[in-house]
Amino acid sequence: MNPGDSRAQRSDVPARAGDAVSGRSGDLWELVFSRDNLLAALRRVEANRGAPGADGTRTDGLRSWLLGHWAGVREQLDAGTYRPQPVRQVMIPKPDGGQRKLGVPAVLDRLVQQAIAQVLVPVFDPGFVPVSYGFRPKKSAHDAVRVARTVVGQGYRWVIEVDLDAFFDRVNHDALMARVARKVKDKRLLGLIRRYLEAGIMADGVKRPTEEGTPQGSPLSPLLSNIMLDDFDQLMWSRGHRFVRYADDIRVFVKSRRAAERVLNQCTKTLEQDLKLKVNREKSKISPASGATLLGYGFYYSASGVKLRVAPKALKRAKARIKQLTSRKWSISMGERINLLNRFVRGWMGYFRLTDTPKILSDLDKWFRRRMRQIRWKEWKKPRTRVANLRKLGISPRKAWEWGMTSKAYWRTAGSPILQRALPNEYWETLGLVFLHDAWRRYRTT
User: What pLDDT was estimated at residue 95?
Assistant: First the structure.
């Protein structure tokens, strides 16, 4: 492998992966470590960047490191003596206040795992059920939400939410490898995947063994999670259930509460007895569709059919983030603040562009603009500066003096008619600030 070669990946590498399943035992191995596949994996790892793993090597140093070391690594891989490094564990905050474990593999292991994933996705993905949407080519969270909306509109108005307790930490290695081996006959490749599962965790400088689980954050983890849950999907699909799954987010739609209770018991039995997973019975629940959520979206009924809204928790998190970015105690320039706000608003609205509740966005924007006026008012600081700036913005001398000299608090002043007139929507538009409703409208018209 020459990491300096920038040629595009050969398009026939993934296509040939499916044919290799029934061929010689080494076919998949050679596809994984073919020059074109490795170069494509390297480009993906470099593009994804990410933090360094346990060895401290960064993605921007991987290409040069490979020039002098890849031959030795490949020799170890072929001989079966290569040992992946333990995954560096980091804890990231969850929206509910808890923490989620995230694994950060070494960049070399990210390269090898990415190369494996690129070859195995064409092997397994065609056999997955159509309503599995997580981490699959040409499928997205939006697809899952749209299908759920359609199913609710067809009269399946009771929703079963199945919560898997720490799914990525509880995957049984033997059960998972048995499912991988159904389509992968290459023993070297199976052995390498097993070694990645058992590579261990590096937490606070101490290595711990991993007897179960597949760390979130590794390139192979999404595919392995879909392989693990495919038996559940196939059973639900064969029984004609209306459901969607996105990674470990499972929603099943039925027409009555009694049916929901029966199906929830079936789901729990399959997941726990057959797949050796654990269902969180406290968080798993049955709800009317109007009270259910999926991937941050909720449902509501209108005269024209079932519509989508932003789930209350997602809306609350968005408001908390805007509040953080518009804190008047945070001393940064207005230009830098607007850049950070625009990045958040565009990203958040890009995901929630399916929502059918523009009024909620407009109401949130009113609060958002008031917080921006509050910041500007504090920036002006001195009463005489405020008077001068109000006059420049078209406020009469008398009113400018009255409000410039006011002792009213920031929030009250920011909501006053005078400051709304001095700092209207157009003022913020000239500064380039993007508001939620405007971003939503642009997404809906493109």
Answer: 63
**What's the confidence (pLDDT) of residue 418?**
95
89 neighbors 102 (Cβ within 8 angstroms): yes
Whole-angstrom distance between the N-terminal and C-terminal Cα of the chain?
42
Sheet holding 206-208, edge to edge: 99-104, 87-93, 201-203, 206-208
- Check residue 23 and give its pLDDT: 37
pTM assigned to the model: 0.87
Which helix (H) or strand (E) covers residue 91, if one does?
A: strand 87-93
The C-alpha R_g of the chain, in whole angstroms, comes to 27
| Residue of 257, 282, 279 lying closest to 159 (CA atoms) | 257
Residues 173 and 212: beta-carbon distance below 8 Å: yes
Number of other residues whose CB lies within 10 A of the CB of residue 108: 21
Sign of CA dihedral 249, 252, 253, 255: negative
Q: Which two tokens stand for residue 254?
A: 């039925």
Per residue in 352-375, pLDDT (tens digit) is 999 999 999 999 999 999 999 999
Task: Name residues of the chain where pLDDT drops below 50.
Answer: 3-15, 20-25
What is the rounded CA–CA span in Å between residue 216 and residue 203?
15
Predicted local confidence at residue 12, as pLDDT: 39
The shares of helix, strand and coil residues in the chain, as percent rounded to the nearest 5, are 55, 15, 30
Burial class, 236, CB count within 10 angstroms (exposed 0-12 / middle 13-18 / buried 19+): buried
Q: Which pLDDT score, from 0 to 100, does residue 124 have?
A: 97
**Who contacts 228 (Cβ-Cβ below 8 Å, separation ≥6)?**
171, 175, 176, 179, 275
Q: Which two tokens stand for residue 353?
A: 């562009």
Please say whether the beta carbons of 170 and 212 come within 8 A: yes
Instruction: Spell out the SS3 assignment of 204-249.
Output: CCEEECCCECCCCCCCCHHHHHHHHHHHHHHHHHHCCCEEEEECCE
Mapped onto helix, strand or coil, the DSSP state of residue 411 is helix
